[in-house]
Amino acid sequence: MQKKGKIVNIGSSKLDEIIEENNCVIIDLRDEEEYKESHIKGAKNIPYIVFEKQKDVMEIDKKIVLYCDSGGTSIYCAKLLAIRGMTVYNLLKGIENYKGKYFNKAR
Fold first, then answer.
1. What is the pTM of this model?
2. SS (H, E, C) 29-77
3. Helix (H, G, I), strand (E, B), or coil: what is residue 97?
4. In the prediction, which pLDDT does 4 show?
5. Other C-beta atoms within 10 Å of 5: how many?
6. pLDDT in tens, 63-96
7. How far apart are CA 44 and CA 10, in angstroms?
8. pLDDT tens, 40-64?
9. Closest CA to 70 of 38, 93, 53
10. Phi then psi for 48, rounded to 5 degrees?
11. What is the arrangement of strands in the sheet containing 87-91, beginning at the earlier edge strand?
């Protein structure tokens, strides 16, 4: 029997707490250009199109946090992982709504 996954929707302050635990993988699902413009510090850029092809090989022992621009793509991808039995943290309303201290904007 496959373990049941779940999606935990989080806001900025909870994401900051998870980052400070130092036991997470943050995945930015936007394209490379958007990532270069701004991202959450420490996030790995895995554009949605690549993520969708690699989701079946993802085995991560850390907390997984997903985000995109406004939350639609990240919730979709979170569902794909939850179906596989993973617990996934989804940044509500995406980076557009992130007000935490780990925002990194290109100069």
1. 0.92
2. CCCHHHHHHEEECCCEECCHHHHHHHHHHCCCCCEEEEECCCCHHHHHH
3. helix
4. 80
5. 16
6. 999 999 999 999 999 999 999 889 999 999 999 9
7. 18
8. 999 999 999 999 888 766 667 889 9
9. 93
10. -45, -45
11. 6-10, 87-91, 63-67, 24-28, 44-45
CA angle 59/83/48 to nearest 5° reads 65
Cα torsion angle, 10, 12, 13, 16, sign: positive
CA count, 13 A, side-chain hemisphere, 47? 8
Q: Which CATH number fits domain 6-101: 3.20.20.140, 3.40.50.300, 3.40.250.10, 3.30.70.1650?
A: 3.40.250.10
Cα separation, 45 vs 58, in Å, equals 15
Q: Which residue has the tokens 């690699």?
A: 54
